[in-house]
Amino acid sequence: MARLQNQVALITGAGQGVGQGIAYALAGEGARIAVIGRTRSKLDVTVAEIQRRGGTAIAVEADIKRAEQLGGAVEQVVAAFGGIDILVNNAQEVPIAPLLALSEDALMAGWESGPLATLRLMKLCHPHLKKSGRGNIVNLCTVAAMRWDVSNYGAYAAVKEATRQLTRAAACEWARDGIRTNAILPLGDSPAMAGWTAARPEEAAAFVSTVPMQRVGECEADIGRFVATLVSDDCRYINGQSIGVDGGQAFLG
User: Which CDD domains does the record associate with it (predicted)?
Assistant: First the structure.
């Protein structure tokens, strides 16, 4: 039997990239998928592909920066599937700029779409994850915070590190409720990665050269399948961890 048979997974930002890869992988293990994002056309692509493969999925259009829309999105998922077993917080607006050029609007967008949206969704989903008895939360963070030189990436690292600390707090506070909470720090061949490579080709090439496996991970095969394992009973004693899914590039020790 598939490891996630009949479980319900709510995944933000699943219309493309890493979120989409996670959605495909979890669906492949039998989970019913709710993909959440702002662009309906992208969500529909993910849903159609899951259905083409024989899985079950719905699209829920919502701006994760809007608290009232998040509440409505969770209600839609529960109404459609009867509960929530897995929450994956993937969506994030990324503020990348030197500090002197960083606008407050960009920083606020990173904060609202990152740690604030993550906390809101964790709290909204908590009663459903608790009721499940096997609840899982996976929050996506970044190895940018592990750089020796964080020039230009300070704001991005800051909002993602806030998410990582919320992850640890939830792991400590909610394990007694039957909920495991972990963070992954992925390196995936997403549209965001492609855009960064196009904008900063020399920097991107130098970065990839530091990956021991000498390649960027595939969104479904490398990152999605790892998440499917992480939220399965095969990892039932893993809680509160930050795990690099990046071919060995970052040392978190």
Answer: SDR_c
Joined together, the tokens standing for residue 19 give: 């979120």
- Residue 251's pLDDT is 85
Q: Which of 162, 197, 161, 183 is nearest to 227 (CA)?
A: 183
- Confidence band of 18 (pLDDT split at 50, 70, 90): very high
pTM equals: 0.95
Residue 156 appears among annotated catalytic residues: yes
Q: How many secondary structure helices (H) and strands (E) does the chain include?
A: 9, 7
CATH 3.40.50.720 fits 8-190+219-235, yes or no: yes
* Count of Cβ atoms closer than 10 Å to residue 133 Cβ: 10
Question: Does the structure show a pLDDT above 90 at 239?
Answer: yes
Structure-block tokens of residue 140 = 């996506």
24, 153, 156, 237: which one is catalytic?
156
The DSSP result for 146-181, as a single string, is G-S--TT-HHHHHHHHHHHHHHHHHHHHHGGGTEEE
- Residue 252 predicted with pLDDT over 80: yes
For residue range 23-39, list pLDDT tens digits in order: 999 999 999 999 999 99
Amino acid sitting at position 150:
V
Residue extents of the structural domains in the chain: 8-190+219-235
Report the candidate in 218, 213, 210 with the shortest Cα–Cα distance to residue 189: 218
Contact between 109 and 133 (Cβ < 8 Å)? no
Type of residue numbered 206: A
First to last CA, the chain: 36
